[in-house]
Amino acid sequence: MAKDLKDTGLKFLTLTFSEYGTRTLTEVFEITPSRPNDINKLQDPDLYGVSIPVKSRDKSLEIKVTVRQGSDDEVFLLRAVNASESGQVVYIDKSGENTIVGTGNKVIVMKEGERTGDREEETVEFTIQSGKFQYNA
């Protein structure tokens, strides 16, 4: 393992694609999720024109993942980029004060930019997007 490999032992990311199977990413330098935002909406006005604000949680999640070049994780993610069907994701983050646990459907994977060589080993960054992410208690 690389000397600067971050301790991602508190973050777990498992992807499933029907064409390629299931893989828990193991050779990860960094996992950075986007935090969900509350969406403020107004209900339709009633007879008197009064609208009540309603808060709902954004159901999407975007996760940036940096993996080692040439690793089995990179090979799996490159295959997932070309998947003809969307996949599923399970994300667990126990690194902060609150544990984030959730599952997502309608997952797509995108490769970001070029390989980076700013570390001792070259890395590749991917973006994983889940259109329907459900947080579990």
Description:
The protein is 7% helix and 53% strand. The strands form 2 sheets. The protein has a 7-stranded antiparallel β-sheet. The protein has a two-stranded antiparallel sheet with strand order 4-5. Mean pLDDT is 78; it is low at 1-7. It has 1 helix and 9 strands; from the N terminus they run E-E-E-E-E-E-H-E-E-E. The protein is elongated. 20% of the residues are buried. A hairpin with a 3-residue loop joins strand 1 and strand 2. It has 137 residues and is mainly beta.
Descriptive key words:
single chain; 53% strand; 7-stranded antiparallel sheet; 137 residues; 1 helix; 7% helix; two-stranded antiparallel sheet; disordered N terminus; mainly beta; elongated
Instruction: Give the mean pLDDT.
Output: 78
Overall geometry: elongated
The computed structural class is: mainly beta
Unreliable sequence segments: 1-7
Read across the widest sheet, the strand sequence of neighbours is 2-1-7-8-9-6-3
The profile of the biggest β sheet is: 7 strands, antiparallel
Note the topology:
Elements: E1 11-17, E2 21-24, E3 28-33, E4 38-42, E5 53-57, E6 61-68, H1 72-81, E7 87-93, E8 100-116, E9 123-136
Antiparallel strand pairs: 1-2, 1-7, 3-6, 4-5, 6-9, 7-8, 8-9
